[in-house]
User: What shape does this take?
Amino acid sequence: MKCQLTVHYRNSVKFIEAKSGDNLLGLLREHNIDLTTPCGGGGRCGKCKVKLLKQGGCSEQEMTSLEREVLSPAEKKSGIRLACRTVVSGDLTIVLEDKTKIAVLTSGLQFEPRLNHGIKRVTVMLDQATRAVQSDLLQQICDRIEGDDLRPEKVGLAGLKQLEQLDPGKPILVTTYRDQEILSFEQGGAEKGLYGLAIDLGTTTIALFLIDLSSGEEIDVYTLLNPQQRFGVDLISRINYSRTESKGVAKLTRVLLAALNVGIDVLLTRHSLKRGQLLLAAIAGNTVMLHTLLAVSAQSIAIAPFTPVFTAALEFKAPEIGLKIATAGMVKLLPAVSGYFGADLMADLLAIDFPVDQWNLLLDIGTNGEIILGKGERLLACSAAAGPAFEGGNISWGMAAVPGAISSYCFNQGQVHYTTIAGAKARGICGSGLVDLIAELLKAGLLDNTGAFRNKDKLPATAGGLITDYKGRPAFLVAPAPETASGEDIILTQQDIREFQLARGAIMAGIKILLKEAGIDFSALAHLYLAGGFGNYIEPANAVAIGLVPALLAEKVVKVGNGAGTGAKLYLLDQDLKDYSDELRKKVTYIELSSRKDFQTEFINSMNFCTSG
Amino acid sequence: MKCQLTVHYRNSVKFIEAKSGDNLLGLLREHNIDLTTPCGGGGRCGKCKVKLLKQGGCSEQEMTSLEREVLSPAEKKSGIRLACRTVVSGDLTIVLEDKTKIAVLTSGLQFEPRLNHGIKRVTVMLDQATRAVQSDLLQQICDRIEGDDLRPEKVGLAGLKQLEQLDPGKPILVTTYRDQEILSFEQGGAEKGLYGLAIDLGTTTIALFLIDLSSGEEIDVYTLLNPQQRFGVDLISRINYSRTESKGVAKLTRVLLAALNVGIDVLLTRHSLKRGQLLLAAIAGNTVMLHTLLAVSAQSIAIAPFTPVFTAALEFKAPEIGLKIATAGMVKLLPAVSGYFGADLMADLLAIDFPVDQWNLLLDIGTNGEIILGKGERLLACSAAAGPAFEGGNISWGMAAVPGAISSYCFNQGQVHYTTIAGAKARGICGSGLVDLIAELLKAGLLDNTGAFRNKDKLPATAGGLITDYKGRPAFLVAPAPETASGEDIILTQQDIREFQLARGAIMAGIKILLKEAGIDFSALAHLYLAGGFGNYIEPANAVAIGLVPALLAEKVVKVGNGAGTGAKLYLLDQDLKDYSDELRKKVTYIELSSRKDFQTEFINSMNFCTSG
Assistant: This one.
């Protein structure tokens, strides 16, 4: 039996077609609504609470034993249930809690944007006398918009069809772009505010910033996990998927656009805006993400000579690519440099705006460590294949920076303190927690310089019972079973430390190659910019402790926050940044580390914890 | 029962879905295949012959009595039948005769086109070394196309998706437009010829000229009756239809595009071309036709202040407007000046290219008489609402210039000679026949200067029995019953002559107003250009006789032929004509005759046959 699921979330309502027998959690996931499900929907964690409304019976009998156990009497009474245990049996309305959200870094450097986005609205009144003059409506309107070089040729078919519908005797509201193009005609009247979207299209997380185009102010942000993750957590897996699956590229694009469009709906509903008010979008992302956004296969980036199909600053009418802002809206993609120097890094550069008379280093650590060393006309860049360790990947109890992740860790005289994201029960360790952990283990002398756990007889007494055993090798007990969500120990293994060393080593080697190329050493650096979620959460002292940041640079660290997001906002608001970023592109020399003979040497030299600086 | 109708026409094959019981003629009409049907499909004229192939039985018994009568034994044996009498009873294959076509003027002035259409094809070979350089495919290709200012930003989404499919290790064929835009990428190899279409979109008839873009040569032409005629023969009726019928505008557009696309299919098939080779189209037509082509309502042209939505030289990617040339193809519309000075007149001007140091007059007679008087920087234009008399409309036995129409008429000493289009049995009188008739009647003294038939007692003896009576008033017997297709007399009535006088008077008044505005008289004119089908078929001597052309201009008449078609061809082949026609537009002063107080006076003064010159 078909039935309808109505989902309320903040001020937004979404309608989902369901059939009886569907699992509620599965249904929500299919429609890009990601609830916090530490146990993966296995009915163990009790986190996927939803409130059921307008359904016949919600009696105690229908509850599972887990629900009876984890829900408070008040919750039970108000209709709170667990989505993973709920089976749809008819039309159903649910309310999601406001806190149902994931932690994505959305704040960036403070910036004073130049308001030069190019969208203008003018109300034109054609009096009868004007209209009677030998001319056409389009030409008359163009003539009435002062100071613009608008040519009727630049109106699209959609614009013509809008114009035809209007009463030329009444005011006409004309929206123009870059003083050159007519985006739309509407019957005039009160002009409503105009808004834009800056989108940071990350491999793992996506953020949509709603920006008031009249002030440049950030009104709201909607964040989500990249729904393409279901086809592979890393880009190469997704490219493989797109290559081997029929219509794989189209599928990657479809889920991405569907998720972005849900985000747009939510933002519009939250702020009671009409879609027609959302006239501009600027999108930053790595080169693979921008290819999949356009349903252009990114295969060529994955195989030698790793050449992407495009890197230019492209611009589209929104309906062309399927982004549901205003029909007349424009979407601009930030330019990239190459397959491995994406528009996300370009956005970082726009956000930071490197001082030109000093050497500066930018480090954006995600699955790859993106490194840019720049001064004046020179920008040296490389991408160190660090792997996902800094994002919690390839680590036994690693996880993304979502609720329940241990994000900071302190080990002092045998006393352990850690915090988790959203204060949830510990479920695993995310990147910044990993750095803290390793820094503490080094400081406490539990690890030697090679990263190996010291022999038991050489361990300090404070280690107490924290050194344990994992598959026959020494390991560190991060959080004991009673404290954790799963009721099982969270452990850092020797192998995890090796993974971390490989990631850190790759990044350090990349930095050293760039310094060598520039002919400088660390002391020449004016600033070390740390961008991205990992860079923002990391404790500078611990970054020094693990040798990711040389001690002499500790004072020079500047946290950029979400540089890609900030750059996208700047790009959204200032059309001149297109030419500026084209200039930046020309300055970049990308150094392919794998083709450098000295990379392996630097890599090996960077493995040990004593080699930094 | 559903069945398939397969239609062979010249080298083209068309498949039509049918069901048993369908009338074959009706089915063909529905699919824009117009057979010659003087009797309108009533089973009387025997003209709609088709050859049936691959159908079980075509025995004598199945024939109607008409078929048995009009078809020769050889025809019967070879499967020739009448479409109007044929009922579909299963899958059916038919062959249409080559001569199944309508007479539309497709020839124009001789011209030497400048080959500057802007479409270029370049084969680019990216070697591995080039590809490995830090860049993207799109940029590398742009860099390899010499002498062009191609920016990757100008490639559309379709181009990107093509590029992604190609093997960059093999030659890539790049098609560019105006040295600025990339239209398409294909895997290289042998380059095929490129073709363009010049389209003359008339109210009554449409012509598609297939042009070889490498030589400018006209390869072929496909002509058809404007299928919008089913919604009204004149533009105002069609605008009314579009206003009162739900989705009326869309319907007008749909039938028009369907017919144009059939024409394209026929041309491609006849010359074994691929659609991808047809990369450019230029379209001329009056302002209403160009509005309906784009599915933009032309309503505003029909009501005061008669302002069209657009007149500019617009350009679209072919799929945007639904014209089925190459997917990457571009369609350019010639610019108009106003609702009543359309792109068809602009095309006339381009075709004629008025000498700038002399006064010249252009007369394009269709439903309206379009008149342009020009010298140097001045172009004075007006449109005289002549009505359809010159096209055979509003005339009792009037008809379009299709087979069976009396197109020339000679009356000498009581001897009558006339010719019909395609030599068919006379069915009526078309415009040029009407002019000849009236000229002869005037010369023979059968009409007085006011256009009235002389009293019987004043008639010359040669009139013999040709003066007859129609509804109580005198009339002229043009073709007696035994000679005609219908077996009934074809008659020219007093009312018909009045209609003709009104039409001629309106045009003459228009010409005089323009001359007055310019401050010149007929003697100042260097040339009198006659454009359009009517202008081409008319005998100059008779045009003088009826006072449409002053006697002193008889030697200065230049027949332009299909000026709109010629102008469209020139516009197709030379991109610089866009700017040139924009210049022409600025020079035009359009004179609205209805707003001139002196128009009525001139109109009345022009009614009599003695007032010309």
In short: The longest strand of chain B covers residues 2-9. The CA atoms of residues 508 and 599 of chain B lie 10 Å apart.
